[in-house]
Amino acid sequence: MLATAGRTKYFEDLEVGQEASMSRIVGEADIVAYAALSGDYNPVHLDAEYAAKTIFKERIAHGILSAGYISAIFGMKLPGPGAIYVSQSLFFKGPVKIDDRVETLVKLVELIPDKKRARFECLCTVAGKPVLTGEAVLMVPRRPR
């Protein structure tokens, strides 16, 4: 399924405090597909017997999968098509398990006009608890003249 991108928000359209969010349930197929795409076949993600012996007691999703939801917001909603990642910090706070609903929120906290940059706080939660926090800087296109 292909999603339709939202309208591009140019640098001039941005205001500190703007937010965008999305919600996604992490399924078995997501974990298997991510392993195949990334080559990360760590058994904590794919082998229930192995995972049962870890601190998590069951399989967990790849941490970076949640970071992909942040990227999806930037590319599809805020700022939208044309925005380019400059940097991203990630702090993993807890596991995402199969069938967890990940709520992802980005909030614009700073505009840097001379470089056309926007800095965002990023948060992913499961059942109201943070599983990933971080910050991202994006280059945002100016409105065409």
Description:
The chain has four helices and five strands. It starts with 18 loop residues before the first strand and ends in a 6-residue tail after the last strand. The chain is an alpha+beta fold and 145 residues long. It has helices spanning 28-38, 43-46, 48-52, 63-76, and strands spanning 19-25, 84-92, 101-112, 117-126, 129-139. Strands 1-3-4-5-2 form a five-stranded antiparallel β-sheet, covered by helices on one side. The mean pLDDT is 94. A hairpin with a 2-residue loop joins β4 and β5 (129-139). The chain is elongated, with a radius of gyration of 17 Å.
Q: TL;DR of this structure?
A:
The chain is 23% helix and 34% strand. The chain has a five-stranded antiparallel β-sheet with strand order 1-3-4-5-2, with helices on one face.
Helix/strand layout:
Elements: E1 19-25, H1 28-38, H2 43-46, H3 48-52, H4 63-76, E2 84-92, E3 101-112, E4 117-126, E5 129-139
Strand order, biggest sheet? 1-3-4-5-2
- The quaternary structure here is single chain
Distance between the termini: 34 Å
List SSEs in N-to-C order: EHHHHEEEE
Largest sheet: 5 strands, antiparallel
- Helix-residue proportion: 10-25%
Count of strand segments: 5
Percent strand equals: 25-35%
Q: Note the overall shape.
A: elongated
Rg from C-alpha positions?
Answer: 17 Å
Low-confidence stretches: none
Supply the helix-strand structural class: alpha+beta
Mean pLDDT: 94
